[in-house]
Amino acid sequence: MAVQRLRVRFSRGEEVKYISHLDLMRLWQRAFLRAGVELAYSEGFNPHPRMSLAAPLPLGVISEAELMDVVLARPISPPVFASAVGRQLPPGVKIIQAQAVPLNMPSLQSQVHSAEYLVTIGTSKERREIELAMARLLAAERLPWEHMRDTGPHRYDLRALVNDLWLVHWEKGLCTLGMSLRCGGGGSGRPEQVCAALGLPGYPRSVSRTRLVIGQG
C-alpha cells in the first residue's frame, strides 16, 4: 500500500557515468533494502517497485540535477530517508535533497520539459565563429537532422529540440557551451548532436547535466 511519495534530487559523478539505466535502478533498490526503506509495489501479475527517474541520463554524462520519485509503503521523514539511504550509496552517487510530494501528482516523467547542460569540447574555431554559429542555429526556423540508430536512420527537426544556447568559456582549442534542450516524450535534444550542428566535430570532452526543469520551471 502506498502511503508516501518522496522526490529525490541526486548527483551522478565520474565514478558511475558509464552504468546503464537498469543498473542504476538496481543500485537504488539495493540501497533502499540495506537502509530498511520499504518501497510500495505496483499491482498485477508482475509487481515492481514504484520508483522512477525523471529522464534517463545518457552514458558518459555526469549530473548534479537528477530527479527520482519513490513511493513508500511505510512513512519516513525526508531527512532520515536521505541519511539512511545515503550511507548505502557507492562513490559517485549522492543524495542532494529529499522532499515529500503528493501521492496523486502526475508522473515525474510527464512533468519534465527541458534539461540544461554544460558541454566542453575541443575546437579550432575562434570565439566569434562559435557565437555566430549559435546565433544562426537559434535564428533558424527548422534544422533537418539525421542520426543512425540500431533500427536505421532517425530523421527529425533538431531546431525544435533546442531552447537556448550560450557560450560559457572560450580559450584557444577549447570551449564550454551552455545548452537548454527539450526533454520529454516528444523528443530530447542531445548535446553532442547540437555540437555537430554548430560545426564542432568530435565527441565532447565532458557533458554535465546541471538542471532538469519540470512543471512551469
Commentary on this structure:
Helix 1 (21-35) packs across helix 2 (78-86). The strands form 2 sheets. Strands 1, 2, 3, 4, 5, 8, 9 and 10 form an 8-stranded mixed β-sheet that branches. Strands 6-7 form a two-stranded antiparallel ribbon. It has 2 domains: 4-105, 2-Layer Sandwich (Alpha-Beta Plaits), CATH 3.30.70.580; 111-214, Alpha-Beta Plaits, CATH 3.30.70.3190. It is 22% helix and 38% strand. It is elongated. The chain has helices spanning 21-35, 78-86, 108-111, 127-139, 191-197, and strands at 4-12, 51-53, 62-72, 93-101, 112-122, 144-149, 152-157, 162-171, 174-182, 206-214. The chain has 5 helices and 10 strands. The protein has 217 residues and is an alpha+beta fold.
What's the structural domain tally? 2
Query: Helix share of residues?
Result: 10-25%
Our measurement of the CA-to-CA distance between the termini, rounded to an integer number of angstroms, reads: 31 Å
Query: How many distinct helices?
Result: 5
Global mean pLDDT: 93
Apparent shape: elongated
Corresponding CATH architecture of the largest domain: 2-Layer Sandwich
> What characterizes the major β-sheet?
8 strands, mixed
CATH class of the largest domain, named Alpha Beta
CATH fold field value of the largest domain: Alpha-Beta Plaits
Low-confidence stretches: none
> What string, H for helix and E for strand, traces the elements in order?
EHEEHEHEHEEEEHE
Strand content: 35-45%
Category from helices, strands and their pairing: alpha+beta
Number of strands: 10
Q: What Rg, in angstroms, do the CA atoms define?
A: 19 Å
